[in-house]
Design a protein that fits this description.
Blueprint: H1 2-23, H2 31-56
Length: 57
């Protein structure tokens, strides 16, 4: 369950970060877009990890 939640969180938050970068007018493969998407993916891994902990209780 842990792997599923962390992978899902990273995917969803990473895509959300890509849309956020697009909203700021950045190109798809610009440095800023990749950084925002990467940071959002890390946040998604943390959120998925916390979700998996709550589901295991």
């Amino acid at each position: 369950m842990m792997k599923l939640c962390t992978m899902g969180g990273a995917t969803v938050f990473g895509i959300g970060g890509g849309f956020l970068a697009d909203a700021f007018g950045m190109d798809t493969f610009s440095f800023g877009s990749i950084v925002i998407s990467g940071v959002a993916s890390i946040i998604g891994v943390y959120a998925g990890w916390k979700l998996a902990q709550r589901l295991d209780e």
